[in-house]
Amino acid sequence: MIDGTDRGFTLGDGLFETVLAEAGELRHLAQHLSRLTAGCATLGLPAPDRDEAEALMRRALAEAALTATRAAVRLTLSAGPGGRGLDRPAAPQPLLVATAAPAPRPDGPARLATSAIRRNETSPASRLKTLSYLDSVLARGQARAAGADEALMLNGRGELACAAAANLFWIEDKRLCTPSLDCGVLAGTVRARVLAAAAAVGLQALEVRAGPEALAGARAVFISNSLIGLRPVGAVDGRALGMWDGLDALARQSF
After folding, report:
1. What's the pLDDT score for residue 71?
2. Residue 2 falls within a domain, yes or no?
């Protein structure tokens, strides 16, 4: 039972991480917990104990009978109970919980539809996995209604930002481009590994500010997160895109 005064429930005050588990292995867990710790510092929350967090996640996998398959394990940190209003208690008592669910691999290239909902690049929350994800929920809903799989989100300046629940990449000649964090982009764990691995497949990695027209001239576009890995984009707003035969090699370097 959720406490009716829990700030994660009433205000979206908290953070989460979603970790891929394969045959019981929590993939890149240290990277996820480091991002969670950094997010806590930004929000002014006590960071969770890493051993406790891992134990909760492993227990969630076991209780869901998912230790032998592919699963998504979500670790949620709420700011905990508080009174009415915005002000936190002087000594917050965060709540840490973990859940697990099956995570089948996505099927085929993604189709993106540009959402009317914008990322707020001026907000620190745009670069964190906060419990307030309503913009992404609504953007995904718009994309589904348009017959697409995922939303393409711009920021308030009209620049490329991300998908509703994934980072965005495109290839221009020998350059691998992705929106810079100041575009209102989550510092994705896969995003970081892809940028680090680009040179191994002959690409120069660039973090840029660009408008949506950049995708029209791209050799290929793909999206990434911890559960889908690197997924090619087959179309944006109904316009077909080319495929890049080096994506599997980049994925192997990144995972």
Report:
1. 98
2. no
Query: 145 and 211: one domain?
Result: yes
Structural domains in the chain (count): 2
Instruction: Tell me the C-alpha distance between 117 and 136, whole Å.
Output: 8
Distance in angstroms (rounded) separating the CA atoms of residues 51 and 25: 15
Residue 91, token pair as written in the block: 């000594």
CA 212 – CA 223 distance, rounded (Å): 15
Using one digit for the tens of pLDDT, what is the confidence trace for 59-112? Answer: 999 999 999 999 999 999 999 999 888 999 989 999 999 999 999 999 999 999
Q: Would you place residue 21 in the very low, low, confident or very high pLDDT band (cuts 50, 70, 90)?
A: very high
Q: What is the model's pLDDT at position 127?
A: 94
CATH number of the structural domain spanning residue 128: 3.20.10.10
pLDDT at 1 over 80: no
Does an H or E element contain 103, and which?
none
The secondary structure of 23-45 as a DSSP string is TTEETTHHHHHHHHHHHHHHHT-
Query: What's the predicted TM-score (pTM) here?
Result: 0.95
Structure letter (DSSP) for residue 98: E
Whether pLDDT at 205 is above 90: yes
pLDDT number for residue 255: 84
Residue 163: helix, strand or coil by DSSP?
A: strand
Residue 229, sorted as left (phi over 0), alpha (psi -120 to 50) or beta, turns out to be left
Q: Crossing angle for the helix pair 189-197 and 29-43, nearest 10 degrees?
A: 120
Sign of CA dihedral 181, 183, 184, 186: negative
